[in-house]
Amino acid sequence: MKLTIPGAGLGLLALLIATSAAQAQKRSLVVANSTADAGKLDPHQTAVGADKGMLNWVFNALVRIKPGQINPEFIEPDLAESWTANPDRTEWTFKIRSGVKCHGGYGEFTAEDAAYSLKRAADKARSAFAGDMTPIAAAEAVDPATLRVTLKQPIPSLLGLLSNYHGGMMVCKKAAEELGEGFAKKPIGTGPFMFVEYQPQQFVKLVANKSYFRGAPQIDEITYRYMPSDATRDLALQNGELDMVFGRTTDQWVQRMRSLKGVKVASIEPAELNALHLNIKAKPLDDIRVRQAIVHAIDRKAMVALLGTQVSREAISVIPDGNLGIARLPLPDYDLAKARKLLAEAGYPNGLTIKVIISTHPTLSKIMEGLQAQLNAAGITLDMQPVDHPTWHQQIRKDLSPIVMYQAFRFPVADSYLSQFYYSPAAIGQPTAVTNFSHCDVADPEIEAARKEPDLAKQKLLWRSAQEKILAALCSVPFSESLQVWAWSDALDLGYEMVGSLNLAPDLTEKTRFTK
Amino acid sequence: MLVYLIRRTGLALITGLAVLTLVFCVVRILPGKPSHVILGDFASQAAIDALDKRIGLDRPIPVQYLDFMGKAVTGNWGVSMVTDRPVIAEILSVLPWTLELTLAALLIGVATGIPLGVLAALKRNRAADNVIRVVSLVGLSFPAFVSAVLLLLIFAIELGWTPVISAKTGSFKAWAQSLALPAINLGLINAAYITRVTRSAMLEVLHADYIRTARAKGVPWYAVVWRHALGNAMLPIVTVIGLFLGILIGNSVLTEIVFNRPGLGKLIVGALSQRDYTMLQGLMVIYTLLVVAVNVLTDLVYGLVDPRVEIR
After folding, report:
1. Which of A280, B194, B219, B293 has the maximal Cβ count within 10 Å?
2. Which helix (H) or strand (E) holds A180?
3. Are the CB atoms for A353 and A383 separated by under 8 Å?
4. Do the strands A380-387 and A352-359 form a parallel or antiparallel pair, or are they unpaired?
């Protein structure tokens, strides 16, 4: 090929234009969440969604769910390049990626850091997720590039446990030991963005980790703002002061944001399951006819209409949709006549009143008011005692409310939700209590057997059977699922297809960039 | 004066100790625990118990009380139970924002409220008086968060004069822009109160004998109004300003939230919802000190504006 002078000139011009266009592109990103301030900026200690989302941009895990996805089937290597397991899946060996640098000059990330991280995540004095890590018997660095993880027994998804979610996040040992309690004020990870500044009640500032092992990020700086006022976040996005905001889960908000020029809106996974957990050991709910009356009195379609069709959907099982192992079950029909008949058979021909403690949290109280109206039509009066959210959390953990409306998702493998909400050791009052408000124990054998089952197809059958039994016993009445809602500038290219984010905020990666 | 100050300081200390005790009791009577907030709903009972032990909530209440009082009087307010950051550092990092907003709002309130109150009194039952009374009534009854959003819509979105996010960035212009709307929002409510009190205080003194005498002696009208009348009407106005200063410090929370400004109000709401006992205790001490300081200052100003008030 012959290069002519005019041709070279045109090429140079094109290059200059491209270069100046690239330089003109925005490279700093401002994101706002709805909390008033940061909590602990330590991935093993924070249970606050707003912090988890941001810390996901700072930390890596041994494996990760592909950005934009939430399904464990999308698990791919992160700090571990590869892994193997022994035949009974109790001993796992991970090959750690070489050349990964910890932020702030804390050296190279090795298997020793990985082993330290897992032990730290399993330590209840230093981790909010210690309970999740109990299946791990030992984590040891065989050499700087090899980590061995030994389990007490096989579990459904060790890789899920070690992914970029909760206790799976990897910290750098030297930084965590040197900083001690101060680590929560200066988080040191290996991710695409590094923590540089925190201003109380204002923002956390992150900058690009130029030596990130997947390549230097195309965004130079992220300002993560804490903005509790919905109206202010919306106005600031409209005014161009923010590039991405956490939204309100209402159809009105989605429609209003969609009407703004240059704004993208997405209802994203994971969906939180809205379910009434009925205490099957306490009167009057120990009578299954009363529980059946409740389930027939709830119109799931009407609840979705109340919550918003663009931000919620009908429940399909006793665990959230999108979980590995979910079974689409035929949930009982809405039938008021049947509900009244069942109540009469149970000895309540004139209806009954149940005292329920509810949270004053706006989302939860709105749902409860909708349910109250529906149940009232069947002759079931909910005598609601509103208390503030922290009080509600405490009181429902003392078995003070026979009905608990809980909105939650867990790591999307059926075992997580089943174990925490329907497994007898997790029942309220037990030393190992988590959130089994219904005191459900009908599916314990299936839940336990599924954990040990190495064959995924058989495991799924066991999970299906567990869900069927729980539904038959009506430990809970699932009715809807609520999605997360975010809006961002259409000039922002996330670098992947957005389906959802387990950490409740869109993943910002080295590929995230502005297109103009 | 010195004796007065020493006596007031002594009383303030006793008040402070009483408030500390009250706060300690109240925050522990409230149901809900910080460990639930910190660990979230994933936590097992064992993890919650472990955290309670780490932050000292497993100890008997009297032991916690003695420990708290001992630390409080020595200035060691501990660390936030939720964030692990030192309480004093958290408070000091947002205190200047609250003081700045409070003083600016007070300035706007006084600069607007007193002249309008005087004018309304002078034009009693005439058009100007009616307009001022209606406007001040609107100011009193308008919720701060509604007026805040309206101000943002007009000045930030439509006119583009100020940012939506009120955070100073170094330059004087940026600082002034970020302070203007929040200060106006709070200041106008303040002005409404001051206008009404000034009007009624002025109406009382404008019919006094010494005003009539001054006018009969040929004292210029402006001097009669601003020196003789307003000077004698200042006591209730100063009282209201003093009271409002204390209320402003506590009431600024909605303005702080809507304009996304840091401040003590936001800190106390967060600490309350998270049951952050140590932070709540530290904040109560600061609020008590501020309110006591404002009261002392108000008493001192009484002596300055009215020679009949003697400070002993």
Report:
1. B194
2. none
3. yes
4. parallel
Residue pair A458/A464 in contact (Cβ under 8 Å)? The answer is no
The conformation of residue A223, written as its DSSP 8-state character, comes to E
SS3 B243: helix
Q: Which of A39, A166, A232 lies at the smallest CB-CB distance from B82?
A: A39
The answer to whether B152 faces chain A, any CB pair under 8 Å, is: yes
Across the interface, whether the CB atoms of B84 and A181 are under 8 A apart is answered yes
- B38 contacts chain A (CB < 8 A): yes
Inter-chain CB proximity B266 and A36 less than 8 Å: yes
Comparing alpha-carbon positions, the chain B residue that sits nearest to A201 is: B262
Of A166, A239, A434, the CB nearest to B164: A239
Alpha helices in A98-169 (DSSP H): 111-122, 158-161
Interface ipTM: 0.76
User: Shortest CB distance from B44 goes to which of A47, A393, A434?
Assistant: A434
Report pLDDT digits (tens) over B112-157: 999 999 999 999 899 999 999 998 888 888 888 889 999 999 999 9
From A261, A266, A268, select the one nearest A491 (Cα to Cα): A261
Alpha carbons B242 and B248: distance in angstroms, whole number = 10
What whole-number distance in Å separates Cα of residue A276 and Cα of residue A291?
Answer: 10
Report residue B39's pLDDT band, with 50, 70 and 90 as the boundaries: low
Q: What's the predicted TM-score (pTM) here?
A: 0.83
Sign of the Cα pseudo-torsion (A501, A234, A48, A275, in order): negative
Across the interface, whether the CB atoms of B270 and A232 are under 8 A apart is answered: no
- B305 phi, psi to nearest 5 deg: -85, -20
Give the mean pLDDT of A103-119.
97
CB atoms within 10 A of CB A81: 13
Q: Which one, of A229, A31, A222, A199, lies nearest residue B262 by Cα?
A: A199
CA–CA separation, A244 and A24 (whole Å): 20
- Among B10-14, B231-235, B276-280, B294-298, the minimum mean pLDDT is found in B10-14
Mean pLDDT calculated for residue range A335-358: 96
Specify the DSSP class assigned to residue B302: H
Residue for token pair 């100003």: B301
Is the Cβ–Cβ distance between A381 and A350 less than 8 Å?
Answer: no
Sign of the dihedral defined by the CA atoms of residues A46, A49, A54, A56, in that order? positive
Q: Strands A146-151 and A91-96: what pairing? A: antiparallel
What span, in angstroms and rounded, lies between the C-alpha atoms of A57 and A190? 9
Cross-chain Cβ contact A125/B50 below 8 Å = yes
Q: How many CB atoms lie within 10 A of CB A509?
A: 23
DSSP A229-251: -HHHHHHHHHTTS-SEEE--SSH
Report the pLDDT value the prediction gives residue B42, as an integer from 0 to 100: 61
Distance CA A201, CA B252 (A): 15
Minimum Cα–Cα distance from B44: chain A residue: A434
Q: Annotate B257-276 with DSSP letters as a single string.
A: HHTT---HHHHHHHHHHTT-
Residues 6+ apart with CB under 8 A from B73: none
Query: Which residues in chain B are contacts of A410 at CB distance < 8 A?
Result: 42
Total Cβ atoms within 10 A of residue B12: 17
Q: Which residue of B has its CA nearest to A419?
A: B42
Give the list of residues 6+ apart from residue A96 with CB closer than 8 angstroms, or none: A62, A79, A80, A81, A109, A110, A111, A114, A144, A145, A146, A147
Interface test mutation site (partner A, options B83, B101, B279, max chain A beta carbons within 10 A) = B83
Rounded Cα distance between A43 and A41, Å, is 6
CA–CA distance, A286 with A425 (Å, rounded to integer): 19
